[in-house]
Design goal:
Radius of gyration: 15 Å
Number of helices: 5
Number of strands: 5
Order of helices and strands: EEHEHHEEHH
Distance between the termini: 34 Å
Strand order of the largest sheet: 3-5-4
Helix content: 40-55%
Strand content: 15-25%
Largest sheet: 3 strands, antiparallel
Length: 139
Amino acid sequence: MTPVKQTESKGFAFRLDEHSGVPVYRQLIDQVQAAISIGALFPGDQVPTVRHVAVELAINPNTVLRAYREMEIRGILDTQQGTGTFVSNRQPEPNKDDRARQLGQLVGEFVSRAGSAGLTVGELINALRELEQEGGQRR
């Protein structure tokens, strides 16, 4: 079983897979972007504080700060001093070529990891549909 650390705030949870080979800051970024894409996070929603994420996941606060800063630079998050960090109202439009490349890479990794766990593509598709339905019911 793969060790996974998790923190939750208002229906959104960070989960870290310590054996994925993906850097922790990258996992945080990917999860925020995924939550936005499935409708689990919306513009204006507050994300957990750097301190909260660091304590809950037992990781260095600088790692969380790095992820949050990168998402601010990309226009995904906005930090308001004294108030918190929120999903930005101005979601950037990714380059179509970059988006296609990222999708291909993610699908390949996802199918490969699932296959090594004994899961079929059909099971993955069903799980993704369920996830989409759950995310779409929030608002």
